Amino acid sequence: MDVFFEPTRGIPFALEVGYFDTISEIKQRIHKKHKIPTSKQTLILNGEPLADDLNIYQSDILDRTLLQLLVEPETPRKIQILAKMSTSKHGLKVEMNSNDTVRRLKELLINQMDGTVPINRLVLKFNGHDLKEDGGWFLHDYDISDGSEIEMGIKPSPATSSSTGSGNPSGGSRRKMRVMVRSKCGSMKVPVEVRAGDNVGVLRNEVMKLVESGGFLVPADGFFFIYKQNVMDEDRSFRWHNVGPGDTIEVFNGSVSGGL
């Protein structure tokens, strides 16, 4: 069965668990997949912490139960990060605190580039994910640690973007891709066209259009999207979730409070 987790930092996610898996075993799996030390984890159900020696059955955890995951803040430490362009063998080294923000990382990189690039045109990626600075995202939200290598890019200026767009209006980030949306019971599966740079919220709008035309069914009490067993953040792009053409996104009934 699937259990959903709402961490105090980062985005919600899901894990497939068995009825006799212990809380301790689940914490170990969270550590393996999301790099959160087991000693820093506390799982909460209905306001009560779950003991490590209890199993899923004893804890009254059911399919699609939402657990709060309290993550104890790490003690700040110095880390060194290498940021480099994908087309270059050389990069920029910066030393930071482990609890610094993505915004602070950008400021240090811009400083090393003598301010020649506006901060809003600097794009950073780690493990295929765009590093977002809005909302106060921290380095540890992306599991960035000492020795991590960041991919660095520069957005084209507005003038360049508009001239490029007029010559190739269907190319680049404007090109659409087709994803498959499957209902929870698996009885319905429909194709939907979106752009990689679109937020997942666009998919909700497209799905509701299908519902209104009678081409798809969604739970009456609300729904959210799951991709590869992870809850999707509707304020983030398909590219951020690593969704590619032809991938399948599932519709689950209910809602995820607080994190999305």
Automatic annotation (TrEMBL):
Ubiquitin-like domain boundaries: 1-76, 79-159, 177-258
GO biological process, one term: proteasome-mediated ubiquitin-dependent protein catabolic process
Comp. bias regions, Low complexity: 156-167
Xref: SMART domains: UBQ (SM00213)
Molecular-function annotations in GO: polyubiquitin modification-dependent protein binding; proteasome binding; ubiquitin binding
Any GO CC annotation of this UniProt entry: nucleoplasm
Annotated signal sequence range: none
Region annotation (Disordered) ranges: 151-176
CDD domains documented for this protein: Ubl_ubiquitin_like (cd17039)
PANTHER family in alphabetical order: UBIQUITIN DOMAIN-CONTAINING PROTEIN 7SL RNA1-RELATED, UV EXCISION REPAIR PROTEIN RAD23
Protein name per UniProt: Ubiquitin-like domain-containing protein
Higher taxonomy: Eukaryota, Viridiplantae, Streptophyta, Embryophyta, Tracheophyta
